[in-house]
């Protein structure tokens, strides 16, 4: 099989004989991983001796070999045959020692730069053109960034609204921490503490329902299986005792996400709250889901309620039959 002038084979196939790596770094790593000479199963053949490559190879060059024919003509090197251990090779390579140069794009594009640098402006007064006042504390923002993520912010800054020309806007009915979390999500695409709660929720689902293997698409029905109400009840007590404050914080962020129309954050909050649906939190979370129009959370709560009632009816019927 022939190869191109950049080192591709022209006759034969050397891939099964350990053809050269695409770069010298991976070649050095593979060399370091080989067993030392003299160890069991290693041939004393001279072409088995390890060498550190000194030539940068683009493409797949010839593999290790000895006894081959090599001829240099101009800038080209022609290599034919040889042997590698007990294998005799029947391949042919033409190596170009001065291949044509090709322009490549290595620098990040504008979208990548924006994504990478946007977090720098989170609550930063640099180029800030709006300041939010929440519980007496200031949070710096940028109208263009906020408008691109939230239609609510966009409407707030457009003509006809009193906030259009305001440099300082007071945000009521929310805590400083919750609004700061909303801003952090807008500028960075994530909220660390929400992500921690989300991971905890997924781990909990895997523990209660190992058959899911972490599949979130199956978690809605699995997390509230009526056959496992006891496990859910046990978790409900733990969630109220250990994570009660976190539930309130997540609910507050959910309410802000709905208020400012940040739907992706809203759905993240729903996934975190999902395994926290239990007998003690059902009424509260059902009210929250209705208030914030969180349709997924609302469906989860109603499904839990239906199955809880069915499970209670089954237990009563079983108790009556035993009597």
From TrEMBL:
The keyword Zinc-finger does not apply. It comes from the Eukaryota. The keyword Repeat applies. Residues 1-25, 202-231 are annotated as: Disordered. InterPro entries: BTB/POZ_dom, Kelch-typ_b-propeller, Kelch_1, SKP1/BTB/POZ_sf. Residues 209-231 have a biased composition (Polar residues). Residues 128-195 form the BTB domain. PANTHER family: SPECKLE-TYPE POZ PROTEIN. This is BTB domain-containing protein.
């Amino acid at each position: 099989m022939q190869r191109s002038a950049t080192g591709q084979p022209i006759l034969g196939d050397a891939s099964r004989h350990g053809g050269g790596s695409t770069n010298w770094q991976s070649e050095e790593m593979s060399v370091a991983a080989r067993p030392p000479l003299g160890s069991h199963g290693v041939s004393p053949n001279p072409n088995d001796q390890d060498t550190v490559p000194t030539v940068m190879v683009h493409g797949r060059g010839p593999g290790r070999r000895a006894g081959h024919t090599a001829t240099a003509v101009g800038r080209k090197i022609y290599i034919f045959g040889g042997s590698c251990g007990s294998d005799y090779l029947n391949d042919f390579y033409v190596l170009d020692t001065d291949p044509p140069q090709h322009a490549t794009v290595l620098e990040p594009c504008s979208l990548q730069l924006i994504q990478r640098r946007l977090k720098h402006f989170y609550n930063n007064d640099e180029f800030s053109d709006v300041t939010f006042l929440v519980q007496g504390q200031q949070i710096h923002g940028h109208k263009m960034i906020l408008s691109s993520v939230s239609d609510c912010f966009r409407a707030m800054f457009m003509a006809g609204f009193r906030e259009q020309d305001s440099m300082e806007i007071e945000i009521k009915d929310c805590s400083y921490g919750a609004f700061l979390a909303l801003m952090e999500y807008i500028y960075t695409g994530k909220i660390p503490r929400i992500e921690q709660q989300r991971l905890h929720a997924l781990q909990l689902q895997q523990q209660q329902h190992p058959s899911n293997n972490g599949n979130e698409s199956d978690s809605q029905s699995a997390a509230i299986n009526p056959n496992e109400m006891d496990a859910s009840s046990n978790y409900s007590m733990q969630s109220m005792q250990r994570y009660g404050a976190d539930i309130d914080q997540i609910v507050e962020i959910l309410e802000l996400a709905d208020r400012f129309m940040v739907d992706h954050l809203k759905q993240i909050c729903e996934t975190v709250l999902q395994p926290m649906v239990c007998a003690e939190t059902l009424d509260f979370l059902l009210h929250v889901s209705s208030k914030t129009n969180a349709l997924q959370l609302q469906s989860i709560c109603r499904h839990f309620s239906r199955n809880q009632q069915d499970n209670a009816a089954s237990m009563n019927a079983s108790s009556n039959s035993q009597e």
